[in-house]
Amino acid sequence: MVINGCHLSRTMSSSLEAGADGEQSAGPLDFEQLLSPASSISKTTVEDNGHIVAIDKPYSVYTYNEKWLIVILASCAANFSPFTANIYLPAIPVIARDFHKSVELINLTVTMYMVMQGISPMFWGTLSDRWGRRPIMVACLIILSLSCVGLALVSTSAYWLLMLLRCLQATGSASTIALGAGIIGDITTPDERGGFFGLFNLGALAGPSLGPVIGGALAQGLGWRSIFWFLCIFSAVCGLGIFLLLPETLRSIVGDGSISAGWIYTHPISIIDRHHNVEGSNELPPRKPFKNPLLMFLYPEIFVLLFFSGTIYAVMYGVTASLSVIFEEVYPYLNQTDIGLCFLAPGGGMLVGSVLSGRFMDAYYRKIRDDLIRQTGTDSEEHIVPRAIKKDPSFPIEKARLHILPWVVFAFTACIIGYGWALESKVTIAVPLILQFIIGVTAFTVMSATQTLLVDMMPNQGSSITACNNIVRCLMGAGMVSIINPMLVALGDGWTYVILGGLCVLVSPLLYVEMRWGPFWRERRRREHQ
After folding, report:
1. Which PANTHER family does the annotation name (predicted)?
2. Total-model pTM
3. Domains of the chain
């Protein structure tokens, strides 16, 4: 439309929804990359005499503290996917005896859990991108809680039912990661997204460390059924908190958070409620039709990133999945409780990585953005720039997210190889634990950076792209679980982890491929969908 002789563009809130993933053109005006470092301000843009004037406007009506509360709620829910998978591990020998089955058959329930863990988010994530985050999140937690009741009561003569309920349990728990990532994409801008994903990924990745510790203590003290009663109560409490406190965030339903929706999208306790006291955007992006998330694998910039991230995740799982077996053999003086506590080493590394990676990604993103603004020319007082930066394929979002990862992968690979030979040489237990800590830091940094970039590239399909990431990680992780023990038996600890380190070396060039060709692929996809 034309106002006082100036051309008024679409607001930033709809530009992010419609333009960044190339599903439809948002036009040449997009100032999301020009946000101030500490704010969530988007821009309404006006073109005057060949220049673009950007007017500050909130991208989301939620304050910074409210966003943290929303992300904490999402992170608590996201914890269930890996936590539910790993809390079960220490009880496998006991369950095998009670069911009169071999350990290999009980391990099959772990493999099937991981398969469903990868597949189910493709369904739930796609639904949430159309019908909303809040109702789908609550539904998943209800399924998880009910399946845990069934597992706690399952008869030891019904192995088939144990397998079925574990698959159902995975269906409920696994999708919470994809849903949480979609929530973060709804309420945050790229220059603040890294920090929020750091906290969110902590909940998602701490499960492999905390799960075995809690599971071992429960199984030893109260029996293996207590594990599932604990999960039932935990998921029910979390689901109640989500139902009472979490607002709907999907922008095609509530816009920037200022638009009221139906009762199913309304949280009863209004601790986070900005509808009536903040002036937001009245513009509601159109609700997107159903899309097949598997089509994302056809985008080379997405596929390269998914394969790289999945390989690092699988190698990391090769460390954690074999920890109890290796440590029991190499350090026979450890009891089951001690071995469970050893899982805290990678968990502590993940905690440190969540703090460092998020802050670093946000800081470097702003540096890249500010450098590019200075190169193109900016009037800091009038906020006038000669062109929109984000829509220009030369904006190096891939570099902003991935530039440090070659060094991180180098450290990760070195520690993986060192870890194997430390165990082969049976050195003091402090050495492999320290290496596990560093492995946790570096693996978390890779996971956080790649996840953030994926959402940056497909912002209005945050849950769907995270589901794609999840299926690749889980299927590759399941493959690693199935081969790691035979490799250890056949090759020994040292050479097994040399091979795993070699896998990291083989996929590391994909980082340079992504940084070099990613902008071109993104721009080509955007043009194809115009």
Report:
1. MAJOR FACILITATOR SUPERFAMILY, QUINIDINE RESISTANCE PROTEIN 1-RELATED
2. 0.69
3. 2-58 (no CATH), 64-273+292-528 (1.20.1250.20)
